[in-house]
Amino acid sequence: MIELVPPPSTSRKSLMERVEDALLPLINLVFLLLMFFIVAGQLADDPLPDLPATPPSAEQQSPHADLFVDAEGRWQLGGETLDAQTLLQHLPEPDAQNPLKIAAASTIAMADLEALLRTLEQGGFEEIMLLTEPET
């Protein structure tokens, strides 16, 4: 029959002392790594250099918008201000392949934007693309 308990160790150390002896190299390694990263972090104290500015390209131009909404909530199409009755008459027919593009001011009130979207929904527009300005 095979014994499940290992024979006693020939050394006179207890189990706890043997575990401590096995952990000592690991503790030394962690300490050395810690010292290395502290020293390496101090050597690389210089800030990163500024990246050169990229020249504006044609792709960064403002996209074409079909309808503009200013900060006061006025709807403008082709330079003229429209109201809810005349807006739908001046817009192109709703097309699922080409959604209506709306450029809205960043300070527009949500109530004004919601009124515009409801008017467009009543006019049959199902696909709308809202264009916003990136934060600088």
What features would you describe in this structure?
- There is one protein chain.
- The chain is an alpha/beta fold and 136 residues long.
- It has three helices and five strands; from the N terminus they run αβββαβαβ.
- It has helices at residues 15-43, 84-90, 110-122, and strands at 67-69, 75-77, 80-82, 100-104, 128-131.
- The protein has a five-stranded mixed β-sheet.
- Strand 2 (75-77) and strand 3 form a beta hairpin.
Could you list some keywords that capture this structure?
36% helix, 5-stranded mixed β-sheet, elongated, 3 helices, alpha/beta, 136 residues
Set out the fold topology.
Blueprint (H helix, E strand, L loop, with lengths): L14 H29 L23 E3 L5 E3 L2 E3 L1 H7 L9 E5 L5 H13 L5 E4 L5
Parallel strand pairs: 1-4, 4-5
Antiparallel strand pairs: 1-2, 2-3
Strand order of the largest sheet: 3-2-1-4-5
- With helices defined by DSSP (H or I, 4 residues minimum), what is the helix count? 3
Q: What is the ordering of alpha helices and beta strands?
A: HEEEHEHE
- Overall, the morphology is elongated
Briefly note the structural class of the backbone.
alpha/beta
What is the arithmetic mean of pLDDT?
A: 79
| Radius of gyration from the alpha-carbon trace, in angstroms | 35 Å
Number of strands: 5
Ranges where pLDDT stays below 50 over 5 or more residues in a row are none
Distance between the termini: 78 Å
- Helical coverage, percent range: 25-40%
Strand composition percent = 5-15%
Strand count, sense and barrel status of the largest sheet are:
5 strands, mixed
